[in-house]
Amino acid sequence: MHDVAIVGYGPVGAVAAGLLARAGLSVFVCDRSRGVYEYPRALALDHEVMRVFQQLGVADAVARFCEPFTASEYFGADGKLIRRMTMVEPPYPQGYTPSMVFSQPAVERILRESINAYPNVSVVEGAECTDLIQDANCVTLTVNRSPIRARWVVGCDGGSSTVRALLGIRMEDLDFDEPWLVVDVLCNERGLAKLPATSVQYCDPTRPCSFIIGPRNHRRWEFAIKPDEDPRLVESEAATRALLARWITPEDGSLWRRSSYRFHALVAERWRQGRAFIAGDAAHMQPPFLGQGMCQGIRDVANLTWKLRAVMNEEVRGNAAAALLDSYELERKAHVLDLTARIKTVGAVICERDTIKAQLRDARLLDACGGVVRDTPRQDILPSLQAGAFTASPGAGKLFPQPRLVANGGSVLMDERHGCGFRLVTDGSFEPPSWPGVTNIDLAHENEVDSVVQQWMSQHDAHAALLRPDHYTFGSAKTAIELVALGWALRELRG
């Protein structure tokens, strides 16, 4: 019997398998398809995901297929510039560029190659899961007509999830449903010379459109499909070329992919049933306007896998174990709902179809900047966790920064030196306590290069922070008494 069976071997399933494998657990993975899907779907990732890739030991390999997200310009109903968003200045709090574009097929291959190195992972491709039965001790999947038993199951099998259907879990509609055409082009030098130097949001009420600069010569267009248009006809090569004609001709590059989608906002009514969980698109879907689809799925499994590991290794027991596993849905669903609401707000700016309302939108944005569009750094709009496996203290539920620490004339990222378990980071104000299963990081003796932790501590009026294995803050302390209370809270979490 396996410890965990994962249905779905896209990037979310692969990350889940890698995190569990590194913990020494026995993992089974199946996917109905064979090999990596050779066309890009996700295009954006962020520094939190890169920190997870670092945890998997693949960040350097992945970085070869990533580039910083360019500035984004917004043009209004009359074709005038109404907003310009740029990258925040370093130092970057997670140790990586906050927003990036990447090549999904290449990154998926890297993830799979890293998993091939683990003898405790069994991967079966071209294998369909058709049934799921569970009892108090395990789950039995039927995969290619054969039984597969595991203590836990995670469905990472996409928007049309079989696992979700077998569990009888419905999706809740979050009131966003629009048809769009997504077009990926590999441009040659002639084509690249014709195109904008930044990513662009064309907030044109007649047909909203996004232009995104991908890595190397990859360029993506996303076109809203009009109510009277047939998506199947719009995605034909002739219709696609007609839409692209505003920018490039067939001689300027090759069509890599063209596909019509419905941009949905959906969330599963529940994310766990007994010993089975769902994650990624199986649990939620959101419009792509902030490029958070794949990122959200990887957050899901980063959150879930450390909790499964803690329960299976009996680091957490009894009622505390049940509560910890229940906190997966509690934390992640609220986060998804909050972020989806923010994404819909961005989408409302881009997708306004009423000409008068679009002109009023443009006027408001221009009035806000005094009629002169200036560079506006992209702020981190990702919400904190609202409730779950953390304390009620300043900064709890927030992603904790990863400083660069001075090392041999250079620097090393904190997780590289200290790992990714529970970590107590202090600034020298206390004598670090000896808590079982917790790594002490005293920055009075390990100097950070860019003061990102010092800024965090100052912002939250704290001198210590306890980090969870997924890098979120379990709690903070300003005084010695608060530090003792933080230790008791950790004992309570573990039962």
Characterization of this structure:
- The protein is α/β, with parallel strands linked by helices.
- Among the domains are: 2-67 and 99-172 and 265-339, FAD/NAD(P)-binding domain (3-Layer(bba) Sandwich), CATH 3.50.50; 404-494, Glutaredoxin (3-Layer(aba) Sandwich).
- It has helices at 11-22, 47-56, 59-63, 104-116, 162-167, 189-194, 231-234, 237-244, 293-312, 318-351, 355-368, 414-418, 452-459, 480-494; strands at residues 2-7, 27-31, 44-46, 66-68, 72-75, 81-86, 99-102, 121-125, 129-134, 139-143, 146-155, 171-187, 199-202, 209-213, 218-224, 253-268, 272-273, 276-278, 284-285, 375-377, 404-407, 410-413, 422-426, 438-442, 464-467, 473-477.
- The strands form 5 sheets. Strands 19-16-12-15-14-13-5-6-20 form a 9-stranded mixed sheet, with helices on both faces.
- It is globular, with a radius of gyration of 23 Å.
Please render the helix and strand layout as text.
Layout (H helix, E strand, L loop, with lengths): L1 E6 L3 H12 L4 E5 L12 E3 H10 L2 H5 L2 E3 L3 E4 L5 E6 L12 E4 L1 H13 L4 E5 L3 E6 L4 E5 L2 E10 L6 H6 L3 E17 L1 H6 L4 E4 L6 E5 L4 E7 L6 H4 L2 H8 L8 E16 L3 E2 L2 E3 L5 E2 L7 H20 L5 H34 L3 H14 L6 E3 L26 E4 L2 E4 H5 L3 E5 L11 E5 L9 H8 L4 E4 L5 E5 L2 H15 L1
Parallel strand pairs: 1-2, 1-11, 2-8, 5-13, 6-20, 11-18, 23-24
Antiparallel strand pairs: 3-7, 4-7, 5-6, 9-10, 10-11, 12-15, 12-16, 13-14, 14-15, 16-19, 17-18, 21-22, 23-25, 25-26
Helix pairs in contact: 1-2, 1-4, 1-9, 9-10
